[in-house]
Design brief:
1 helix; mainly beta
Length: about 80
């Protein structure tokens, strides 16, 4: 219960928003892999893998990032 209340107060839930070749990820842990064809993002219990072409991180602020480019695949994998 305490952890859920903490998450509500501090809004620590992972948020993933996709719209027209833009992927916004909020409350991630760290970037594992970044190149023009693949980005892997560590979250608390999953890894987000983004594959595509000409991928760029165009927003990188605290716990939020925006990936743009020709996004072809978004997968969530267990750690």
């Amino acid at each position: 219960m305490h952890l859920k209340m903490f998450d509500v107060i501090h809004d620590n839930k992972l948020k993933i928003i996709y719209y027209e070749n833009k992927l916004n990820i909020i409350n991630y842990k760290r970037i594992l892999i970044f190149d023009k064809n693949k980005v892997s993002i560590d979250t608390l219990n999953k890894v987000i893998v983004v594959r595509g072409e000409d991928l760029l991180i165009t927003k990188f602020v605290n716990d939020e990032l925006l990936i743009t480019g020709k996004i072809k695949e978004i997968k969530m994998e267990d750690l």
